């Protein structure tokens, strides 16, 4: 949908403005004193409205539809019922000095089993809490640990404290943050996607590049409608000998090829391609600079090339250059 709406605006603008240009209506509009900005105002207005509408679809409606589609497939495709998420043997990094090791998490009961919480200061462990069960209290918005042992380290001294229930541990995430990790970036709304990205940067080391790319895509793609509305008038107002239909087909095929290529390339490879392209452009610029310097030297040595209007009549007086004799 993010690409369908800009393409529709491109086709509509090309055919409408191209039709006016073909019937010489643009010349009449310019002759009547209407400026280009006034003529483009309706296109820009439609572009702004389409951008806002596309922004709403891409940021909220499309992710919600994808999430409902995923639930429907899990419930009805192949007779397999919906299975709640269950994760085992994973780590959570609540902050730079607090780590959580979880043996098992069950979405059905919203509980963590066999949890170990470690706190560090200056590279040394200062406290460790081991609990059999950890649950999230939605009423008080806090985590509660059951049946565990708390160890406190101060130098060489270690103190033990057993507990049946402990609710004084403050963690920087809630159970909803854990549940959101089940969704893919395509299923998250724009706000939830940003919160999920911040959470992953906070509690996980690395591996957030793809999530960040998807978030920027949701923001950047809707603005394609506005960009198309600004470019369609200058493009369609030019005379094309091959016809408007062929010009539109070339644009469509180019967009399809570029879009398919970008979708199939991972983000890390895209960065390598961009880096390689920059290197190629720099080397090409240096090569062109050397050619210009050589051309200046050639002119100083009177190495002339006669150019005529038609390519087939162009020639170079190599013999005169080698003999260093004046041209007739």
From TrEMBL:
Write the record's keywords in alphabetical order, separated by commas.
Cell membrane, Membrane, Transmembrane, Transmembrane helix
A biological process (GO) annotation for this entry?
lipopolysaccharide transport
This protein's GO cellular component annotations are: ATP-binding cassette (ABC) transporter complex
Instruction: List localization entries.
Output: Cell membrane
Is Glycoprotein among this UniProt entry's keywords? no
Annotated membrane topology is: Multi-pass membrane protein
The source's superkingdom equals Eukaryota
The keyword Cytoplasm is annotated on this UniProt entry: no
Report the principal subcellular site: membrane
- InterPro entries (UniProt xref): LptG/LptF_permease, tRNA_endonuc-like_dom_sf, UPF0102_YraN-like
Q: Name one GO molecular function term.
A: nucleic acid binding
Q: What is the official name of this protein in its record?
A: Uncharacterized protein
Q: Which organism is the protein's source? A: Potamilus streckersoni
